[in-house]
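Help wanted!
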Amino acid sequence: MSLLSPSIKVCSWTQEHDNPASLETYVANGGYEALKKILAEKTPAEQIVEQVKISALRGRGGAGFPTGLKWSFMPRNFQGDKYIVCNTDEGEPGTFKDRDIIEFNPHQLIEGMVIAGYTLGAKAGYNYIHGEIFELYESWERALGEARRAGYLGKNILGSDWDFDLHAFHGYGAYICGEETALLESIEGKKGQPRFKPPFPASYGLYGKPTTINNTETLASIPWIMRHGGQAFLELGKPNNGGAKLFSVSGHVNKPGNYEIALGTPFGELLEMAGGVRDGHKLKAVIPGGSSAPVLPADIMMDCTLDFDSIAKAGSMLGSGAVIVMDETVCMVRALERLAYFYFEESCGQCTPCREGTGWMYRVIHRIENGQGRPGDLDLLMDVGTNIAGRTICALGDAAVGPVHSFIKHFRKEFEYHIEHKKCLVGG
Amino acid sequence: MEKIALSAESRALIDLEVAKFPGEQKQSAVMSALRIVQTEKGWLAPETIEAVAEYLGMPAIAAYEVATFYNMYDLKPVGRHKITVCTNLPCQLQGADKIAEHLKAKLGVDFGETTEDGRYTLKEGECMGTCGSGPLCLHNNHKMHAHLTPEAVDKLLDELK
Ligand SMILES: Cc1cc2nc3c(=O)[nH]c(=O)nc-3n(C[C@H](O)[C@H](O)[C@H](O)COP(=O)(O)O)c2cc1C
Ligand code: SF4
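Answered by r_m:
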């Protein structure tokens, strides 16, 4: 299986080969063919955007925004510099798919970024890589070197009259830099504080120039789409949810890991691929799309298919496709306490509701967990959350509230028990 | 405060980073530059940060802002081996608490502390984007150790002289 045959594996196919990350493996299986064809035929940018639209590729970074539509926002006739930026700042708890693309299939991301650069008229591109996976920042730089030497990057790419280059950039410990405008600030050498929008990056992005930001998996899907056509990609998934997608499964399963499956696959099948709930235990709850996605109880989750629309209908989000599985031994108060701490710790501090509210929520959950909860605490938590959501510069505020509201909604009894009995309902 | 000079090695590495950006955007290299000098010196003293700022032609305060915002920069001296353990939910579910307890007991320090002999610093970390292989730790910011067990931790600690 490779890029040549339209297998279900769009991004993870190289792992079935020896030396998955090498340029040889990639090229021997159809890699860089899409780019060659585009440059040889001088494919008009509108045609590429059209194929991406047909594919119904939706952003893999969390928001699920249609990629073709996003690309069409870039000002075509703008004369100055433009940029393409890739978001590999994967730091959303539960998400670890982009790291695998960098580790095992770096050239498909490079080819995707080069095609994006060509289509959007960019002069250069940057890939922002999460600081904690520094070894992969180094390995991606090596892959860039290989691509440059082979003529896929730099001046006169593949003998054309077009120049374009790509560079790696690393974060150094700040979840908020995954937010696209914080990420741009960070590349500019500043604190990672999100910008007020509008203006959106398509008009005012990196260094104030028009910029498109996409997730790693989004960009790595582009060569497949250009090779097999937007329609073939769409047909891998279901209407409005084109393609296959990587799901990162963590927590209480026998085989945590990444699984690439068609959008629309029933959740039960993914759980089975991940070896099922760890031995002798029962499924209790699942966070289906990274820590910011509302938690769902087992029975609701087992009825879901894995696509943007089905998970949204069930009251959560597909997000980045990070599936955190919890069995019956999990104390939901303790689980929520850790997530609340994360958002408190990672708030950039610009907006009062987020800066103060995340700390407040954490302290209340912390006291409930430690047997000092008060009778009005759950209402207080709901209320603080309501006063954060929708009142902040970026979506981290909402992301912090989603877990709090959903944990209390679905597992209220456990929280009440903690407050009343000063101890845990799970395991005494 | 005494002025310090960046080493030739650091400057050469920083120059490679500066070359990635448009000529007037040298400040874009500050994240890498701070990482490069921290790796060489072990931590970022105020005069080190100022030397980086000066080298990149940016105000010292702007470099301080960056150094204080991102939590992998160390603004105080740390042990020769900094061990950062992720305790976020996915890792917690996969046993990170046990690993953290083991490390604390073995080293006799809490998170944020350094052993008396200056050999190890223990830190609590946030999501490292590698949850499927948790529990995890980072050694000196750059080397990840996955699938940790108490035995694997013992072995690692022995190797880090
Ligand atoms: C707090 C926060 C963290 C985010 N982290 C990431 C991330 O790690 N990776 C990512 O691709 N998108 C992340 N996003 C979403 C980005 O802002 C942006 O929507 C995305 O990179 C766009 O790419 P896509 O359309 O291809 O998904 C985050 C958003 C927020 C608010
Ligand atoms: S919502 Fe929070 S993280 Fe986002 S800009 Fe405001 S304070 Fe910063």
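OP: Thanks! One thing I noticed: The mean pLDDT of chain B is 97.
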